[in-house]
Amino acid sequence: MFLRELSASLDHIKGVGTELRSAFTHLGVTSVGGLLCYYPRDWEDRSQIVPIRDFQRATVCTVVQVIAHDWFGFGAMKTLKVHVEDTSGQGVLVCFKRPFLENQLEVGKQYRLWGTFFYKYGEIQSSNFEIEAVRDDASKNFGCLMPVYRLSAKLKAGTLRRCMKQALGQYAKPLEDELPAYLIERRGLLPKSRAIRAIHFPASLEELELAKQTLVYEELFYLEIVVAKRAIERRLAPGGQSPDAPVSSLQRRLLERLPFSLTQGQLAALADINRDMDGPYPMARLIQGDVGSGKTLVSFLAALRAAEMGGQAALMAPTELLARQHAENAARLLEPLGLRPAFLTGNIKSSGRARLLKNLALGQIDFVIGTHALFSRDVHYRNLRLVVIDEQHRFGVLQRQAIVEKGDQPDLLMMSATPIPRTLALTVFGDMDVSIIRDMPPGRKPVITHLALQSNETRVYDFVRQQLAAGRQAYFVYPLIEADENKSLKDAESMATRLSEEIFPEYDMSLIHSKLSEEEKRITMENFRQGVIRVLVATSVVEVGVDVPNATCMVIEHAERFGLSALHQLRGRVGRGSEQSYCFLVYADGENNRLSNDGKERLKVMKNSADGFVIAEEDLRLRGPGQIAGIEQSGNIGLSIADLVRDINILEHARADVFAMLEADPELLQSEHQCVAQVLKRAPPFANVAL
């Protein structure tokens, strides 16, 4: 019997009736298997004595004697206090809403006590405690590691533990191992039956650690099966012939026309792409590189390759502003080489759109650049050979899939300006090959980042004024378009007025945000790029924007309200030219705007690091995989016990085992069995090979 097959109702557990079943449903537990997989969030070590005098060092776990009762407060607020002592000292149990303990905790008798104590009102107190009478029989709640679960108002800790013990007694013993036996032995894991028992009620800290490793490995093993299945199926699809593909004729012509040379990172990425596109199966590659590292130019070179192979290429960008910039650059660079580019968004007028779609379907357009419109129902391609997705984290899984399905197994190239953390590269993007562009074009200087209190913003304004006087340009970014109800945050509209009238009245200024029409945003950004506008006030809409090499100042107000990825992208808007650039992270202070711990961590990371990979790892740790990977449309990664950051080493082991297994026996991919584990019961040929 496999744990995943335990769909029996909770009614089958002795002692669970209608009321308890409802309480469990509120926690998302509806079956026996679901209950056994409802893992503790922590464990209390009640096996070690911690006397009252050591309350500041650890949670108290001791035997006490009740020495007195008294009360404080009046009426409904009247509260019982129970005075206790052990061999080390005295303490007080404050029994909020538990007056019945007056009869249960008798003066002069001994009790086992577990509680969190603190010093208050001249005495050592606890209002969060568990207590039981000392009897001759063995204790059920002391002298052991006690699981701590997430609870609800209708489900108490003792009740949940009792139900869990009953479920384990009825169902744990016949549980079969879901992992192949050779992997359990190789990785030093526990049998499934023992692991499930030990994760809830471990006999020791050592057994608990083994149970965690076992269940974490198993969960990540199943996750990597999904990843590996996608990767191997893609490799089984038909592709090109040559494993070695040098720079093509059109690519060489473009490189010769450029006024600069590609960086080593760009050249290496291009070589990877050419090998993939001429390889034995469709390309699935992710290019990682900071803002300004030259990823877009590499994608243009890939589009030339697709055209030479008789196919079409499509580049999807998250905003019309960015798509338009790409289209303009493509026209400038690629049209002289004979390539036929086009620009497609939802705002193209119907007459022009119909003509464009007709030419696209007839194959008279080689390279189409646009937004989500590229995968609209009425968009058809003659031979879509290459799909490029820019700023991939801004698209959900379903959106990425929709554009790929417009072709017949086209090559896929995704680009990320915020590097993907290693854990996500092994999971969400684990079926893709990765190229990393670490170097920046020559002449670029690192952006100097400063942290500034909101109360010291005058100094920031003075510095920006010096840059403007030197002929430079500046961004001011705010978290809101307009004032919120409490007026607790600065907004772009109000600050645009203040900056233009009070702070920088001598410089041309404009405002851009998401509520403006695409045409208004295009004109504003073009004027900023041309230097007509010297100060641009914006929301995070400029996170993905056009290149303005003359902009040297980025001021982000209420920086604590932005995620690390957004801060990194915004900072990347400056430093695009040869002049030194600066980023000011202005954060709120004062009684009503205390900086949260997460906010402090984000700002420290931005201050201390310009390395996109360090920032990406921190962003994953603080925000979780769903948001950073752009996978919200398909749901977050529903891990119940594994942690992608903490368990990276186990993840790598599971990944190696899964890929080796499926590559050695591809027939496993064709299985119709509902439970993958049933398919994997037989050990493949490499079972005894060390990885």
Shape: globular
Looking at this structure, what is the CATH superfamily of the domain at 448-609? P-loop containing nucleotide triphosphate hydrolases
Strand content: 15-25%
> Largest sheet, order of strands side by side?
10-11-9-12-13-8-14
- Quick one: biggest sheet? 7 strands, parallel
Helix proportion of residues, in percent? Answer: 25-40%
CATH class call of the domain at 448-609: Alpha Beta
CATH topology of the domain at 448-609: Rossmann fold
Supply Rg.
31 Å
Total beta strands:
20
CATH architecture verdict of the domain at 448-609: 3-Layer(aba) Sandwich
> Uncertain regions: pLDDT < 50 for 5+ in a row?
626-636, 682-691
Class by helix and strand content?
alpha/beta
Topology:
Layout: H1 18-26, H2 32-36, E1 42-45, E2 60-72, E3 79-85, E4 90-95, H3 101-104, E5 110-120, E6 123-133, E7 145-148, H4 157-171, H5 181-186, H6 192-200, H7 205-236, H8 249-257, H9 264-277, E8 284-289, H10 295-308, E9 312-316, H11 320-334, E10 341-344, H12 350-362, E11 367-370, E12 384-389, H13 397-404, E13 411-416, H14 422-425, E14 433-437, E15 448-453, H15 457-469, E16 473-477, H16 492-503, E17 509-512, H17 518-529, E18 535-538, E19 551-557, H18 564-571, E20 582-587, H19 597-608, H20 612-623, H21 625-629, H22 648-664, H23 676-679
Parallel strand pairs: 4-6, 8-13, 8-14, 9-11, 9-12, 10-11, 12-13, 15-20, 16-18, 16-19, 17-18, 19-20
Antiparallel strand pairs: 1-7, 2-3, 2-5, 3-4, 5-6
